[in-house]
Write a structure and sequence with these properties.
Chains A, B: One of its GO terms (biological process) is pantothenate biosynthetic process. The structure is a homodimer of 334-residue chains. In chain A, 36% of the residues lie in helices and 19% in strands. Chain A has 334 residues and is of the alpha/beta class. The first copy, chain A, has two domains: 2-202, Rossmann fold (3-Layer(aba) Sandwich), CATH 3.40.50.620; 212-318, Pantoate-beta-alanine ligase, C-terminal domain (Pantoate--beta-alanine Ligase, Chain: A,domain 2), CATH 3.30.1300.10. In chain A, α5 crosses α6 (177-189) and α7 packs antiparallel against α8. The A-B interface holds A 14-15, 18-19, 103-105, 124, 126-127, 129-138, 155-156, 159-160, 163-164, 166, 185-186, 188-193, 272, 275-277, 332-334 and B 14-15, 18-19, 103-105, 124, 126-127, 129-138, 155-156, 159-160, 163-164, 166, 185-186, 188-193, 272, 275-277, 332-334.
Chain lengths: 334, 334
């Protein structure tokens, strides 16, 4: 453990992190975890704030998880700035940081260390990491289509973080809407004694959803990327006014807005907001409108941005299936 | 919770079980878990005894786990006798029993309750259980060949039991050698804060490895099934005396002994005792000799029996890679 100037303890090993959390719990304190991949923005800090309202002490983890990246994806160029992150977390009132160098067993001779756990790069050494957690249905649509190993990697690292940090509460952002639903399902199915909280998306003043990846957009790309949030706002208004009634009509219009702005659409989809199953209308259940699209990066390649909104949320409340439902079930289980 | 005559508390819900364990831990007691599928014999009770040496209180779970059975396997006829089990556990000095009716979310209209979680029978209802834990390499050989979903089911239910019972130590039998290795690997890879202990096989006086499934053998089948342990003893002697030097020679001879006695061999294999990889000789590493074979049942169908021994264990000790190694690593982590 090292203590920074601002007195925020930073733990780099599982044993040290767990010992600290157990000491907190022994003193009767409730512990919340905010898992992040670092390069923190206001969205992350809003999760820390929410965590502080749910628990006595807040641990944030900073770890760019190789198992949720494929070999062609941006693991190597994912933005990192741990010193800045720690300062922001200290200012936000976070109580400890878990910042492991590596979370996966890397066997000597088995390949390139931590990055050998990027999917498609891993070694087949019989003693290297080989255990994975999968949420088999919820992981398939949306981001699961173009990133088939993504949620398996997310669930695996979140399981590890849960076992190391032993939180009572874990806070996730709903920008990664499918991830939040997948984690809720995993927690329910595997009986984790953890309450999962999903927090609303934080946006820049112009509407762009906050993301660590925004830093990689050129100024022009950033302007063009506003087409995503403009599309979501259009859909919310059009559905509220019943100007459109069919999910495919909404999807086609939003896709058109993004493509017209020069975005390369990965998906624009409308799905059941709870189980991500297909929907045939916009009035009988809450409907997730989810978007993923690529825009040119300022360095090389493209930046993949995601965003979403839930349409027909009144229907959501009416059927008594609020967004926190699965987390609350967990809470009751304890 | 219900308290039996012999004062052994029996918990049937995850919440009650977890509350009891947390109370024990709050009092500073170390907790051990012995997961079982019931129909207990001396082998199971030896695990309880070992658990008592490792911890202050011992919880045994009794649960026939549907997700580790395939539709054509013996889930429905797996022997059950919970009242007898409880009496045996009380006599063995066990402190609590976890005996859930169901551990998987069963959605109304989604199929036949608990048995709908047998692989191949499950419903595809979008709200039913869908999260699984897999140890991708170690689960492939031996029992993974004929039972491809078996270890996925085992890892998933053990993860659930670990999250509900929150043990410091978990004790498994090495008759299920591959299962023990898979669980050790899962605990290492997912950072469970649990020490895994593997205990030696218990045998009947005539050498038959103890198993709940032995109850389903006819008297004649039981005699014939002794060919398995006779084969293992032959191999131990032949290898110790260097009368055979090649793994395939050992496998062929043991297979012959079992087939001659009327057994239908699923596998007779020699693998690296730690990582279950292939071996080309019997002297440079510890070698697992593992057997699975079917014998006629007294009711219907056949009974699948497994057994094993580790050859060249001196080599094992020499390279300082004892059987408890992974469990001990876990202990040090805490």
């Amino acid at each position: 453990m090292s203590v920074e100037d601002h007195e925020l303890p930073v733990f780099t090993t599982a044993a040290d992190m767990r010992a600290w959390v157990r000491k907190q719990k022994k003193s009767g304190r409730k512990v919340a975890l905010v898992p992040t991949m670092g390069y923190l923005h206001e969205g992350h800090l809003s999760l820390v704030k929410a965590a502080k309202e749910k628990a006595d002490v807040v641990v944030a983890s900073i770890y760019v998880n190789p198992t949720q990246f494929a070999a062609h994806e941006d693991f190597d160029v994912y933005p990192r700035n741990p010193a800045d992150d720690r300062a922001k977390l200290a200012a936000a009132g976070c109580h400890a940081v878990f910042e492991p160098e590596s979370l996966y067993v890397a066997v000597p001779g088995g390949g390139g260390g931590e990055s050998s756990n990027v999917v498609g790069r891993e070694s087949n050494h019989p003693d290297s990491h080989e255990t994975f957690v999968s949420v088999e249905r919820l992981q398939r649509p949306l981001c699961g289509g173009s990133r088939p190993h993504f949620f398996r990697g997310v669930c695996t690292v979140v399981t590890k973080l849960f076992h190391i940090c032993e939180p009572d509460v874990a806070v996730f952002g709903r920008k990664d809407y499918q991830q939040w639903r997948v984690i809720c399902r995993m927690v329910r199915d595997l009986d984790f004694p953890i309450e999962v909280v999903g927090r609303p998306i934080c946006r820049e003043p112009d509407g762009l959803a906050m993301s660590s990846r925004n830093a990689r957009l050129s100024a022009e790309s950033r302007d063009r990327a506003l087409s995503i949030s403009r599309g979501l706002r259009w859909a919310e208004k059009a559905v509220a006014e019943a100007a459109v009634t069919r999910p495919d009509e909404v999807a086609a219009h939003v896709r058109g807005m993004i493509e017209e702005a020069g975005g390369k659409v990965d998906y624009v989809e409308l799905l059941h907001a709870h189980n991500l199953g297909p929907v045939s209308d916009l009035t009988s259940q809450p409907v997730l409108l989810a978007v993923a699209a690529h825009f040119p990066a300022r360095d090389r390649g493209t930046v993949r941005l995601i965003d979403n909104t839930v349409l027909n949320e009144i229907g959501d409340a009416q059927q008594g299936q609020g967004e926190q439902e699965e987390g609350q079930q967990q809470e009751q289980q304890q």
